[in-house]
Amino acid sequence: MLERELLRCKQEIRNLQGIKEAQQQRLCALEGCVLQLKQDLLRASMTQDQLTSLNAELQRKLDDRSRLLNECKEELGTKDKLLEQHKHKLENQQEQAGLQRKLECKHNGLVMSRHGDEALPHITGHTYQSPGHFSSCSGAAELQLVRSALRSLRSVFRDQDPQHHTLDTLEQGIASLTDRLAHTHQGGGNSSARSRVTHTQHDSWSPIKMAHSCSSPVQSSSGSTKVLYFTNHSHTPCMVHISKRLGEVTLRDVKTALDRDNNYRFHFKALDPEFGTVKEEVFEDKALVPGWEGKIVAWLEEDLGENRT
User: Does the keyword Cytoplasm apply (predicted)?
Assistant: First the structure.
């Protein structure tokens, strides 16, 4: 009985040892698989790190190329702007040089016409009206051409450029010279004396002398009216003559004498019974212009399209 029990126990022990060995073999196989998986995972991690590093390097190179491209675009845009500025400046200089040459030609022609008109009475020995009338018409046409050239030249400068004062002075001097030449031809026997006075007063067209002539109270002739006017471009007044008596001058006469169109507003110094000295704006071309102490004082303002009150 005991022997059978012993044999049975031995048999169970052998079975358990077989199961144990089988489990150990299976465990060894599983450990080999786990080790292989760990190796594969390590290789995958290393490959991922390499790809991440390569991606970062490529991104850095792409950023550098983008930065260089932006810098090249900015530099190209700056050079294009400089090229446009130089081109515009060159065009302005060429236009200004052309207008300056045209103005010098007109000025030289006007000076030659003045000298020719002064020499004719001495050569012929007598006074005549028909050539004087022709010279006056020619001088008016030349003055209109000079004013057109001055207006084109004025558009080249900025609004606050000090050259506007020089242009105003030159225009006022040319207008005064033409007006005095016209009075010289209409003066009869006193033409030689008036010509000498005109020649003495207009030897120089410097801004100092023009400003002095505009501000000094000189007695005007009985058949003409002095117009003292200010512009936005210059603080120094300029003066022209209108061949009408004070009280007969209209706004159209002032516009014609100053060569200004409807793009300007005209204010005149006047005396109001209630408020005293005022600036009166005149709108109608046929309206009479108010005077002040024997002359007309005007202010020219560019009309920017605002509503007039």
Answer: yes
